[in-house]
Amino acid sequence: MLAIALMASIGARVLFDNSRLRISDMRLAPGEAGGVEAHEFPTLRWQVGDGAHRRLHAGKEEEPATVADKATFWVEPGEPFRVLNCGKGEYRQICWEFKSPPRYTEEVVRKMLTEAKFTTDVGTALLFENSYCRAWDFCLAPGEDHSLEPHHHILDYAFVYVAKGRLLGYSADGKPGYFDSINEDGDVTWFDIPEGAGTDPKYAHGGKNGYDDLPMREYLVELK
Prior knowledge:
The chain is mainly beta. The protein has 1 helix and 19 strands. A 5-stranded antiparallel β-sheet has the order 1-2-10-4-8, with no helix packed on it. Strands 3, 5, 6, 7 and 9 form a 5-stranded antiparallel β-sheet that branches.
């Protein structure tokens, strides 16, 4: 049996915690084991960078497996997620624990999405969705400009930068200066979004990568 069978939690650092959401950053060096014996809350575990692990799942040790950058794992309360980093580089996951039930039903969420004035695609790719959340990769190439393509926020959300980055915000009508978000790896921002935000353009904005020499990369999760 691997050492991971006895591990409770190693390598995880809490980045953010409020009444609805806890976000942690788990990093394991090559050969290091870690994870959680039993998750307290429903949890989305989101891979950062390519990796390789051997996982103990359902009481059995799985064969070594590669894990692609941006891969997602959903873990129910009481379930374990224990791994050994069997790769040559760092193994990293951003972990999102949902501490309260969804605020809206799926029917209400769909209605909110259709009523928004602008697109509700708040990232560059939707990687995971269930009754708790929508998880978006948000990645812009150096200098990439979507300032005239506003998206609309209708749900509470948080984002984590997984590398140094800068996002310049533009109001829904394309005017610059809406915000200038400069972040380091691991920075978290939370937003409370009120009901009815989909009819208010102040909750919509476009964006541009503020750096010409670095990609802008964040993981963004909307809470239903």
